Amino acid sequence: MIAWKNLSELASFEKVKECKKVCLKEVMSGENGAERVKNYCVPMAGGLAYNFAAKAVDDDILAALAALAKEAQLNEKYEALYNGEMINTGEKRLVLHQLTRGQQGNAVVADGVDKRAFYVEQQEKIAAFAEKVHSGEIANEKGEKFTQAVQIGIGGSDLGPRAMYIALENWAKKTGHFKMEAKFISNVDPDDAAGVLNGVDAAHAVFILVSKSGTTLETLTNESFVKDALTKAGLDPSKHMIAVTSETSPLAKSADYLAAFFMDDYIGGRYSSTSAVGGAVLSLAFGSDVFAEFLDGAAEADATAKETDICKNPSMLDALIGVYERNVLGYPATAVLPYSQALSRFPAHLQQLDMESNGKSVNRYGEPVDYPTGPVIFGEPGTNGQHSFYQLLHQGTNIVPLQFVGFRKSQLGTDVVIQGSTSQQKLGANVAAQIVAFACGKDDEDRNKYFDGGRPSSIIIGEQLTPKSLGALLAHFENKVMFQGFLWNLNSFDQEGVQLGKVLAKRVLAHETDGALAVYSELLGI
Amino acid sequence: MIAWKNLSELASFEKVKECKKVCLKEVMSGENGAERVKNYCVPMAGGLAYNFAAKAVDDDILAALAALAKEAQLNEKYEALYNGEMINTGEKRLVLHQLTRGQQGNAVVADGVDKRAFYVEQQEKIAAFAEKVHSGEIANEKGEKFTQAVQIGIGGSDLGPRAMYIALENWAKKTGHFKMEAKFISNVDPDDAAGVLNGVDAAHAVFILVSKSGTTLETLTNESFVKDALTKAGLDPSKHMIAVTSETSPLAKSADYLAAFFMDDYIGGRYSSTSAVGGAVLSLAFGSDVFAEFLDGAAEADATAKETDICKNPSMLDALIGVYERNVLGYPATAVLPYSQALSRFPAHLQQLDMESNGKSVNRYGEPVDYPTGPVIFGEPGTNGQHSFYQLLHQGTNIVPLQFVGFRKSQLGTDVVIQGSTSQQKLGANVAAQIVAFACGKDDEDRNKYFDGGRPSSIIIGEQLTPKSLGALLAHFENKVMFQGFLWNLNSFDQEGVQLGKVLAKRVLAHETDGALAVYSELLGI
Predict the structure, then answer these.
(1) Residue in B332, B396, B521 nearest the CB of A398
(2) pLDDT in tens, A497-517
């Protein structure tokens, strides 16, 4: 029987708090440090590894965290989720994004449908559609091949798919999987749509309208923007647009689209990269086989998340260490620092995934919690960040835990040797150096050049960023966020915090304002 | 006589702490709220306005902050800076980036040179060079016009110029100022250079190598990468490259470059967008007149920063309110949220500017300070962020102060009317709505839909993002960061925190490692 309890109600959490703190500088020094880096390393899906040697934990703390995982019933709650219990209690919805990439437990039937079969069907429909676009069977009005895909969506319909596209673009070009360039329109700022359209060959572009409800104002506005532009260019919008939406949405059966592919209410936007939301654009860009490999990586990570031993379950371990840093050590933010230019927008996706899921003050029963929940998430790729905000990370007055990601091989394989090393080696050397610099610091009589160390990080290391390792990386963080939501006793799958702004914005547009809102509206020329 | 004192030594800071706190929800409600929005608004340079009605301050707190500004001698310190005193005491350097765009005080002579004249000379040399490139007088080996500019730089040589280029690209296209597309290579990840080069027509590209010292490893590596690619394409690199560097650097008088333009040690990387570092790429992309207008906006902001009345000095006021939020209210992070897609990379630039300048734990004498200094800075453009991390900003357990930016007009002017309003109106309506939602919250019996409000923000409002308003916006934040550095008694112009990582990375590449570092290096395949 699952008990949904607040973190502060768990006896094992008290034990975690009582554990002796680890002096990172000390444990990471000398040969003990070397042993630690070898031992505090957990295999992940997709050939990745989660190395947490530079986190401020030791075997005692890990044992206490394992007890916390048990008391918080993380395995049982995860099992309930993938077996189709109503985990999103606020919106009274199942949470089924994992079914888009595999079957972890029992068949889940909802609305009279086997949901796994439904998601597979959508994936297959997309694959068939993409194949026809690539072969030219589906073409523009003149029978010419489409050469570009443009996704119109915002939030989860934009950040994840965009980050995944950028992550695989160069890999696909190198390996012969690149089929079509993709571009993205998201912001209601008219300069976004107009600017992107300036770089699009509209006559040869297929536009992917993504909105689960079919009512997202920004997305519908940008759709009209695009339709206008197509019409003005003498093109028929219905020959250039497809929809990704829910079956009950107004977009689902419209003649305005070449085709429609479906998701449903059981997949939150920020968890939708492995559904049709990511599937359409990624299958068009790279082919459906690449998308299938990406799903395999994610499914493998989902399976790993079932492990009961936290040292075999990297996403659970990552979640527990994160809660330790947030609720015991009191750190307010976490930086995500991929040493991979291909992951340049991965931090922006994680920022949504994490902050929208767990940036909440009430538990799943709607009662205020008395502990900090989700941290601020931010990041940029290394080495760029090193020449930017790392100053604060090294010597600022707050400690910010760090999540590094690094690969042994580049995607394109083009490289140069300068001063005896390749660029890829320099990249790897830098991330290794940073971990040790943050953990161990450096003494110096000149306090300006003194580094106190004790700044914790973990690193996920892989051979190369491929569709499979990318899928595993994505699902690792989805599952980490899920486990943290369980620990904090939050509903990680709704987002009521975004509603108030929408309501007030509508009021402004209807000129139904008074007080401060009326004056701001005037200042902004509305 | 200037006294450099810690914030905690200032009697006026004690008074600030003693001020009665403001209940934002209360003061922003009803007609009082409307009055507040009208009154708490300060004109800025470039036609912008700084509206701080939704900050948790009142006339008492403002008076206390004005007294703090006086005791901390903010005006005198700024005057010392622009008159050429050695403000960067750690590196024993003057701080002269403001001279690149105007003369705020006395002539500054350093190294036997009038520095203002020197910067103007560089600007003129760049203008003449850009003119010749645009006219075709300077052309490739075959006498064909250059059509692309590719900047090679990292940190301050990348983030600022890149953000400014993106900010003006669409404006320039609309107004007929667009001369050449610009691209940027920064990361030592070989996939960055290789990926960018895949999209570059190398035969018609001019590459801008930017490194003050001429020794930045990432940049020199990427230069070699580019030279390799040019040579392999049968092109002569020396006919395709220019350098922006200091006169004493190895790049300064090399035959490897078509031309060299100079900056010097008195301009920190993160303050260099208005120097030759931004000047070369922006003048090539948009013409030197556009760059000159951008400088005018910045100079106007620098002049405004001289005001002694904090209600006429928006950057000083912004700085004081930020210190109040950080050191009295205890908020650890600040989000920068431009409602302008053109400013999509402006938060990344501010992240460097702020976190690298003030992310420090020792004062300008190298003594540890006993108060928090620079916060974590992050952000993405609205409305995108609304569908992402705003959930945490509205309902998370930490309060994050917000810096909005909004404009009444779009840059491209293309728009559509949907549901009775244009996209630009929707954009403005959203930012107005967000400010009020954050400040005032909303009661609801369902705690899940309850917003406690009291979340402070300010907004900078302008007519349109143009070269001039962009320059003013940039300099506003540079000056804000400078004033905060004065308040915290930091040296905001060095960055010793980035050194340790460089040293350790070199050790890895030389295989001179042991302990943890050796194992990490092995795991990363070095």
Answers:
(1) B332
(2) 999 999 999 999 999 999 999
Report DSSP letters for B117-136, one per residue.
HHHHHHHHHHHHHHHHHHHT
In contact, B303 and B102? CB cutoff 8 Å: yes
Q: Which residues of chain B have pLDDT under 50?
A: none
- What pLDDT score does A37 carry? 98
Other beta carbons within 10 Å of B234:
9
Residue B516 and residue A29: Cβ atoms within 8 Å? yes
Size of interface A-B (CB pairs under 8 A): 529
Cα angle A307, A311, A317; round to 5: 85
Interface of B with A in 80-119 (CB under 8 A): 90
From the candidates B218, B356, B380, B478, which is the catalytic residue? B356
DSSP string, B215-252: --HHHHHHHHHHHHHHHHTT--GGGTEEEEEETTSTTT
Residue A301: closest CA among A475, A489, A97: A475
pLDDT in tens, A196-209: 999 999 999 999 99
Q: Does A255 touch chain B (CB under 8 A)?
A: no
In this complex, which of A189, A380, A502 lies closest to B427 when CB atoms are compared? A189
CB atoms within 10 A of CB B92: 9
Residue B174 is among the residues annotated as catalytic for this protein: no
Closest CA to B122 of B252, B276, B270: B276
Q: Is B179 a catalytic residue?
A: no
Structure tokens at B492: 């905001």
Contact call for A392 and B269, based on CB within 8 A: no
Contact B96, B51 (CB under 8 A): no
- Chain B residues within 8 A of A369 when measuring between CB atoms: 397
Per-residue buried b or exposed e for A455-491, using 16+ beta carbons within 10 Å of the residue's own CB:
bbbbbbbbeebbbbbbbbbbbbbbbbbbbbbbbbbbb
Residues shown for chain B:
526
Asked if A467 and A419 touch (Cβ cutoff 8 Å), the reply is: no
pLDDT in tens, A179-231: 999 999 999 999 999 999 999 999 999 999 999 989 888 999 999 999 999 99
CA dist B343 and B382 (Å) reads 10
Find the length of chain A: 526
Q: Which amino acid is at A264?
A: D
Q: Does A366 touch chain B (CB under 8 A)?
A: yes
- A270-279 in b/e form (b: 16+ CB < 10 A) is bbbbbbbbbb
Catalytic residue list of A: 356, 387, 502
Rounded Cα distance between A433 and A26, Å, is: 17
Phi first, then psi, for residue B50 (nearest 5°) are -105, 110
Cα–Cα distance, B67 to B64 (Å, whole number): 5
Question: Chain B within 8 Å of A395 (Cβ-Cβ)?
Answer: yes
Q: How far apart are CA B400 and CA A355, in angstroms?
A: 12
Q: What is the ipTM of this complex?
A: 0.97
Distance CA A518, CA A522 (A): 6
| pLDDT at res. A235 | 97
- To test the contact with chain A by mutation, choose from B520, B521, B522 the residue with the greatest count of A C-beta atoms within 10 A, namely B520
- Report the residue from A446, A501, A524 with minimal CB separation from B386: A501
| Full-model pTM | 0.98
- Host H or E run for residue B36: helix B30-39
Report d(CA B389, CA B375) in Å as an integer. Answer: 18
The distance of Cα A286 from the centroid of its chain, to the nearest Å, equals 20
Token pair in block for residue B254: 């090399």
The whole-angstrom distance between B454's CA and the closest CA on chain A is: 14
Cβ atoms of B152 and B223 within 8 Å: the answer is yes
For helices B346-358 and B467-488, the axis angle rounded to 10 degrees is 20
Q: How far is B359 from chain A (nearest CA, A)?
A: 4
B181 touches chain A (CB under 8 A): no
| pLDDT band of A253, cuts 50, 70, 90 | confident
